[in-house]
């Protein structure tokens, strides 16, 4: 049972009564008459063959309030795109599959590249960015949600709770982040959030003093969740990273653009499990190794934009402070797990902290050595200024692809 405590500087929506999904959906159907709603699903083709996505689609087929579902499809050839169209065809809502590797969208990407405003690398950030562009072009929604396609414990109540705060016309929220407990198979999961992000934010607060931005980030119960919702007009002005810093980057952008009174978080699930990334300790370009590096870089970049001066000495202090806080948290998590009858491997937890501590230093080195790095994909406002008709042509390209004219 959730508590009702409001901690931090953003509004927290709890799950106090376990209100039924049917009641929530009844409200959302009513809201949809004034505020049409949509959903973005960033997906790899491999997820169509995984254990989660087919069930997610079956659940979404029962959702009565969505005006549009936009599926971003990565790493798919022509035959796989055709299969994806068939796979999602059981959705009764208006839906479109963005074939990012198809010739039409690749041609538009090349045009953006010629203007130096294209996403710099493949990944979830690039996928979401193009889906956002199509959503703006289609003009079918005023509120939308985004969630991952590998959620093993998915049911449609997650979506209903996630989109409710930005869909309710009586509420004034522009952005909402979902949170949940990362527990599965009797184990406490969520290592990057627990052992890297939270202690790093608290270390930065100790080193640089209280900053509104750090207090803001520390208010989120699960800052790395891939589930969030927003008013559609939020998409026009935010810049997002194309790497693993996507979630932190989005939180940073909405903090820059909106008052914290218009930002919130919501409890969306009692249990949540999805595909687990390997630690990949020997490969800095994959898994949690790469993720932790990109997240640290995203935080350093944001601090620099706030006028915080960082140097090599700063990073050594940050690492030492982080390490002590993280080890203390391991003790707390171990005790919490034991009381709840869960398993926690303290040895692997400390190994993870050692890797994250090394990446805190490595990220600082990369940050200092690449002052001209352009980590953010330009906002859609900038794209429209550079190529005024691009959204219209993207919409046309997606329609042609989905009509089978490939």
Automatic annotation (TrEMBL):
<protein>
    <submittedName>
        <fullName>Glucosyl-3-phosphoglycerate synthase</fullName>
    </submittedName>
</protein>
<dbReference type="InterPro" id="IPR029044">
    <property type="entry name" value="Nucleotide-diphossugar_trans"/>
</dbReference>
